[in-house]
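Render this sequence as a predicted structure.
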Amino acid sequence: MGESASLGLTGLLAHPRWRASVVVLAGSKLERPVDHVVAHSGVGTIPAVPANTLLALTSRPEPLDWRLDALLRRLADQAATALLLPMPMSLIQATVRLADRLGIVILGTADDVLALVVEARTLLAGPSVDAAALVCRVARAMGPQLLDPEMLVKRLHVLIDLPVAVLDGDGVRVAGDVEVTARPHPTCARQRLPVANGELLLAPAPDAAGRRAEYWIAARVSRNAAWRAPAVSDALDLAALSLQRWVFARRLVVERDARHRAALLGELLQLTTEPQVETRRRAADLGWRLDGWHIGVRIGVPPDVEVLGRTADVAAALRGEDLEAVVVEYGDGWSGWVTLDAEPTADQVRQLSQAIRHAHARLRQRIDAHVGVGRPEAGPPGIARTVAEADDAARLAVGRPETGRFLQVDSLGMAQLLLGWGRTETFIPAAHTMLTPLRNQPGDLIRTLGTYLDSESSLNETAAVLGVHRNTVASRVDRIKNLLGVDLQDRDERLALHLACRAVLMD
């Protein structure tokens, strides 16, 4: 009996049923094709078979039976591919060497040989049969229930018997055990990306508008099992629909909670006195601390960023710096605060600001964000004051690439207020004249000086903003002092240069 399609022996051995129950006893030419699968009762007779046949014996021969060697020779004469024995028996070395020399692969199984033959013939009859069966199994298993990424990965792994993962819209793994080394293309369509010894199949779970993939479901298929890729891709599409249902259901809950948080934040931002008992209760239900000392944070993003869908990224960036902060979706971004038990010292404020800056750097790897930080304020009414300051700082930070689009109100102080006066028709030409010695010098000295003064003379922070080594900054600052002939320890000279740098850089 023959079949119409050709299937490599490696592909057959990669099939879940065969991979789980069949072992290679002898032979190394696993790349040979299998065009026919024939069942035979034993070694008593030697059947005539077509080329590229896998012969499956239904009864076990003895290892020392000379007829087994005769069967191997006959199969080699007929250009057969492999012989399947009904148990993973130990072969004598003479038989192993003979199989290697003849190019026949000997397989062994403790499973039902006839069932394995049926599986193989089904595959040879047409991959579409296997694909349809797989898709039906996945459809039944997904059902109408909502499966979160962890549950979906576990269920799908059992169904397709391949490594599976769920990725977020940027291709970062959120569940599963597939190592992702390449990010999906922006297009919201199924993809196949090359990976070591195989490929990564990807199916998108689009957002509500269908413009971008909010999540991806990925499965890794080895090169030997490449013939399974079409069936697996169809199965991933079904799983992606299931994941999309979970995303939309979760989105309704998230949007409801976001409206509740935004409403409460709006009330707090209007506070000028002690909040009402009901306001305190609602804040406590959310885990918000109203008492203590608060430092406001505002994270702004371009209008095209979906704020609600990116809150998890913001929270992860803050957690990465061990910052316990309230984060609320508010307008084009997020407003929030960090609460301390007692009034922070200048060093504590500086350390906290540095941690927020580092969290901002983490976030900018995923989102084009700008950040403002307010001054410490006490009690519930202090939340409104420090968040408002953070919002003002964030608005200024948008146009301040020299600070890394990060500004803290303390670092602005009176100089920021004076800047409004400094940007006049008489001051700007004077500022250009003041900084003329720094022009056309290597190292972008004007930007270096402005960043250095913004960073309160911190070489490390200046180096981080400019993306250069600390020693490079130190060398540039020394050159600036020499070229301008100034003492940067003098407060008046520092303020004048600070204003001049800002006026020139923003002109």
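Summary. Confidence is low (pLDDT under 50) at residues 1-5, 411-415. The domain at 7-125 is CATH 3.40.1390.20 (Udp-n-acetylmuramoylalanyl-d-glutamate--2,6- Diaminopimelate Ligase; Chain: A, domain 1).
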